[in-house]
Design a protein that fits this description.
about 35% helix, alpha/beta, five-stranded antiparallel beta sheet, binds S-adenosyl-L-homocysteine
């Protein structure tokens, strides 16, 4: 059970304390003991929007189809999903768009998924759409493209910096006198990556280098000339920069991020403000972010819910409850945001 903890302890003994980002990478993706490699606990450790209500995937399906129609129905269309989990979002989205003339015939589906057990689930649930798995969004074939990612960005490892008077130090994971994993700080770090953009009052800040990698991939894609739109959905602030938002979930409960390495899901808030800045600096179009509740209502969530509820065996009680969770500002409606990063889109995508 404590295999990853032993491995981390040995690594710290030989190499010294590790940045929080390295800790996250090993906990989530170590091939033998990482969380996503061994026991991805979707539905048990945490629940996502598509698993909460079918309305989510259905409406996103309609967004995809509408964007395709507004692009004059290009064929072929590359459709890619980042971190598809159990495949529920794509399954709902594609079922909902079945009746849209020519849409499925135009599609080539690619999935970016790090977890072998989740890839197996996606393979069985999405078999009829003949997906291929690619290691990186930059491997999506050229051509007009739609990209989708729900709760993918929050898994990208974060580095954390803490102000100490005039200096910045990086938060690291080491171990205590009793041999338990423990947070510490590096010695003076005068110019950590990104301090220039740290808010002057901040006591600390968090940076996900993976956001840069993603935007750079999109920038390269834009240079190929074809239009694309990436719809990214996640939680996090759009103005203030996150300080220390590392959290762990185990069995539906938030626990100490160091308590169960490899057995709990690790996540951070996404710095939407930074993502938007990076995308604009790269010359890409940015729409939003808009709060999830607002986006889903703009896409017709209420009417769609009523339609579905009419044929549900429980009169729609479960659907109503799940959809309310997604939209209610006190639940997921405000904290979750939709942002669309695009290139050569001659219109504002629906919902923004
Ligand atoms: N989108 C799904 C699942 C969200 S959980 C849903 O909404 O239900 C996060 C997903 O991202 C999982 O499928 C996880 O395995 C995947 N993931 C996390 N980091 C990844 C990475 N670096 N590369 C590819 N997939 C990753």
């Amino acid at each position: 059970m404590a295999a990853l903890k032993d491995l981390l302890t040995r690594l710290i003994q030989t190499d010294g304390p590790m940045p929080v980002s390295t800790y996250m990478t090993l906990c989530l993706h170590h091939s033998a003991h990482g969380y996503y490699a061994t026991r991805p606990g979707l539905g048990r450790d945490f629940v996502t929007a598509p698993e909460t209500s079918q309305v989510f995937g259905d409406l996103i399906g309609l967004w995809l189809a509408q964007t395709w129609i507004d692009l004059d129905r290009p064929r072929p269309l590359q459709l890619a999903e980042l971190g598809p989990g159990r495949g529920t979002l794509m399954q709902d989205a594609l079922r909902a768009t079945g009746p849209i003339d020519g849409f499925h015939e135009a599609l080539t589906l690619s999935l970016v998924e790090a977890s072998p057990p989740l890839r197996d689930i996606q393979a069985s649930r999405l078999a009829r759409y003949a997906p291929t798995w690619i290691s990186d969004p930059s491997n999506i074939a050229p051509g007009p493209t739609l990209i989708l990612g729900n709760e993918y960005l929050d898994c990208l490892p974060a580095r954390q910096f803490v102000r100490d008077g005039p200096r910045w130090r990086e938060r690291v994971v080491g171990y205590s006198d009793t041999g338990e994993l423990a947070f510490g700080l590096t010695d003076d770090l005068s110019d950590p990556n990104g301090t220039a953009s740290a808010p002057p009052q901040a006591r600390g800040f968090e940076i996900q280098p993976g956001l840069e990698t993603l935007v750079e991939g999109l920038r390269q894609r834009a240079r190929l000339g074809h239009p694309f739109a990436a719809l990214l959905i996640d939680y996090g602030p759009s103005e203030a920069c996150p300080e220390d938002t590392l959290r762990a979930y185990y069995d539906g409960t938030q626990i100490d991020p160091l308590a169960r390495p490899g057995e709990s899901d690790l996540t951070v808030d996404v710095d939407f403000g930074r993502l938007v800045r990076l995308a604009k600096q790269a010359g890409l179009q940015v729409h939003g972010p808009v709060p999830q509740g607002q986006f889903l209502l703009a896409l017709g969530a209420e009417a769609h819910l009523n339609r579905l509820a009419g044929s549900a065996s429980d009169g729609g009680a479960a659907l109503y409850h799940g959809t309310r969770m997604l939209i209610d500002p006190a639940e997921m409606g405000t904290r979750f945001k939709f942002v669309c990063i695009s290139h050569a889109l001659p219109f504002k995508p629906t919902g923004f």
